[in-house]
Every structure is written in C-alpha cells, then in structure tokens.
Amino acid sequence: MLQLVLALAVSVVSAAVYGSIGLRWRRRARIRREILGLVADLHLEPYHAALLRNEATEAAAAELVLDGFLRIDGEGVARLTEEGRDPGRTPSHPVPAALLDALRRHDPEPVSIGWIDRRDEQYMVRRSAYGSERQALLPDLPRVPDGEGSRLSACCGCVGIVLVMFFWCLAGVLLLAERPHGAQEWACAGVAALGLVALVFAERAGGAVRARTECGDPLGDAIRAERHPAFAALDEQQRCHVLLSIGDDSRWRGVDLVVDEDDEWLDDKVWWEDAYEYRAADEDGSGATPPGSG
Questions:
Q1: Nearest-CA neighbor of 192 among 1, 51, 40, 9?
Q2: Structure confidence by residue, pLDDT tens digits, 144-181
Q3: pLDDT digits over 59-80, tens only?
Q4: Whole-model pTM?
Q5: Three-state SS for 253?
Q6: With 0-12 CB in 10 A as exposed, 13-18 as middle and 19+ as buried, what is 159?
Q7: 66: closest CA among 17, 21, 100?
C-alpha cells in the first residue's frame, strides 16, 4: 500500500515539475520565434545601422570622400575640396549633409572628423534628430523571460524548490523503509524510483530549455552584420585616413581652437592665431614664423 501511495505522489510531483518546464519551453520558444520574425522583416537603413554601431560619422566621412567633397591626409586632417565648398552641392542624406555643413563652418581651418563628431554641437543635434526619427520606426521586441521576475515570484520559486527537495528526501526514505511484497508493490516501487530519478534531472532539463530557447541579440547581430557601403567602398589607405581622423579630437580643431595656458607647447609663448596658415607653412618647409610669434 505504501508503494502505491509513493508511486502516485511521486508521479504527480514529477508531472507538475516537468509540466512547468514544458510550459516555460513553449512560451520561450513562441517569444523567440516572434523576435526572430520581427528582426527578419526589419530593413535597417545603412546610416541607421551605422549610427547604432556608433559609426555614422565615419560612414558620412567616407561618403564625402567618395563623392569628392572631402580630402583627409595621413595626419587625419580633413579639408574640403572645391566641390565641397560649392554651396549648391549637398548630399541627399541628412547625416553626410550635416557633416559637410560642419566642415564648411570650419573651412579653411584644419579640423579632424573626430573633433566634429564629439565637439560640434550643431552636427550632434542634427545627427541625434536623425537617430530619434529612425529609432521610432524600430519594432518593440518582446523580452524573453529569464526567470528573474518580481520578488514575490522569486520567493515562490525558492519555496517550491525547497518543498520538492523535502518531498524527494521523504519519499526516498519511505521507499527504502519497507521492502515491497508481490509484483504489484515492486511495480509501484519501480515507478516511484523512476519518478525520483526524473526529479534529480529536473534542473538540468530546465537548463536545456533555457539554452535551446535562448534568443541572444538578433537585432545586434543584424546591425553588426556589415559595414556601411560607403566605408566598405574606400581603399585601404582611405579607410586608414578616415579612422585616424575620426579617432583624433585634440590636434586639429579648426575654428573651435581652445588653448590651455598650462599646455607644454605654449612654454615658448607662441600663440597660433591662424592654424591653417601655420600648417601650410610647415608643409612647404619654408620655415616661416607662425603669425603672432615674437
């Protein structure tokens, strides 16, 4: 009689435990399919994807280089070409158009793309406006349950685990306390034993469900899938120059030149009033004295 009761009790508890695992699997799999479907139907505009990767400015610079509006030398200095200075010529996309307008505000002073990217407020406002406009078009992706719900549900889960462990220990002790007699009791004891073994592997089964229904970051994977077409179209030297300029926000600062009186390079009391003229003189090797120096 005891074996029959144990078999029924263990079967009910095992069904409850694995039933909850099965329901969790079904729910997570449904949400995962929904997320993957939404991402598959999403067509990201190249500049939006670049903006989400924090690469929108270098992509815009690459497009300006390809279109002949901009030249970037080996030191990361960006200068407009004659086409870039023509107010009648402007890129159709708002991000490279905003970058070109920023370069025109600094022209003819030497400036780096990194300085504009991180210091030019007008450019940053226009880039942010484009990002906000495109962000509103992204679908709201559902969140895959990770088991970290409210405090109440977490407490209930802990209590459930404790109760199952207590039941497992009690059932194991009772199963070994009395030797079965007859085929029916042995069969019931076998069912109870199999149920207890199944409960031991319940945690592993839950981990397998989480692993197989893990969604990862499909939107991030889609964003990082490829570089912007304009940047990919550059040759190796042009890409190096763009990356050098985007990473430099301190040397070439155009009309926004801010001088720290404690800088070591001011020890000789030289004041660079015209950075463009100084650089041109330096490149010509004429040894001309920078304006304002005594």
A1: 9
A2: 776 555 576 667 767 777 787 877 887 777 777 777 77
A3: 999 999 999 999 999 888 999 9
A4: 0.67
A5: strand
A6: exposed
A7: 100
